[in-house]
Amino acid sequence: MGFYKDQKSASQGIPYHSEIPISLKDAVCEVALDYKKKKHVFKLKLTDGNEYLFQAKDDEEMNTWISTITAAVSGEKPEVTPSSHSTPAPAARAQTLPATVAATATAESSPGKREKDKEKRFSLFSKKK
């Protein structure tokens, strides 16, 4: 099983962080019941002692991944439908504030407050009045 940054890297055969593919021989894939930080997490335990945690978007995707990996471990040809074939959900990413919320926040503050905030941002020392 190999890991890739995106579909383009996968098509070019460039592994993520130059990691070599892992062997699924005798691996165990199951729901990570002991992991409480996030939902829809499953783990892949390898015979060398390594464990990998994966997060899916929902229970259906998680179960599809588990059954597909389990089938690969046992040497079966897994049935993957186009709708269920996807990659694990990435870790939470930083998001920008929507423009409507930012506009509302600035409209609510008074002009005097905005000027003080601006002064705080652009000056190391407060101005004497």
Overview in brief:
With 129 residues, this protein is α+β, with helices and mostly antiparallel strands.
Q: What would you say this structure looks like, in words?
A:
With 129 residues, the protein is an alpha+beta fold. The chain has a domain at 23-74: PH-domain like, CATH 2.30.29.30. The protein has four helices and three strands, in the order H-E-E-E-H-H-H. It has helices spanning 7-12, 59-74, 99-108, 111-122; strands at residues 28-31, 41-45, 51-55. Strands 1-2-3 form a three-stranded antiparallel sheet, covered by helices on one side. A hairpin with a 5-residue loop joins strand 2 (41-45) and strand 3. The longest helix has 16 residues, at 59-74.
Number of strands: 3
What spatial form do the alpha-carbon principal axes imply? Answer: globular
In what order do the strands lie side by side in the largest sheet? Answer: 1-2-3
CATH topology type of the domain at 23-74: PH-domain like
- % residues in beta strands: 5-15%
Listing every helix as H and every strand as E from the N terminus to the C terminus, the arrangement reads: HEEEHHH
The assigned structural class equals alpha+beta
Low-confidence spans: pLDDT under 50, at least 5 residues? 82-110
C-alpha-based Rg, rounded? 24 Å
End-to-end distance: 67 Å
Q: Mind telling me which CATH architecture of the domain at 23-74 this is?
A: Roll
Q: Mean of the pLDDT scores?
A: 74
CATH superfamily of the domain at 23-74, please?
Answer: Pleckstrin-homology domain (PH domain)/Phosphotyrosine-binding domain (PTB)
Helix coverage percent: 25-40%
The tally of helices reads: 4
Q: Provide the CATH top-level class of the domain at 23-74.
A: Mainly Beta
User: What summary fits the major beta sheet?
Assistant: 3 strands, antiparallel
Domain PH: 1-74
Biased composition (Basic and acidic residues): 111-122
Region (Disordered): 75-129
GO molecular function: phospholipid binding
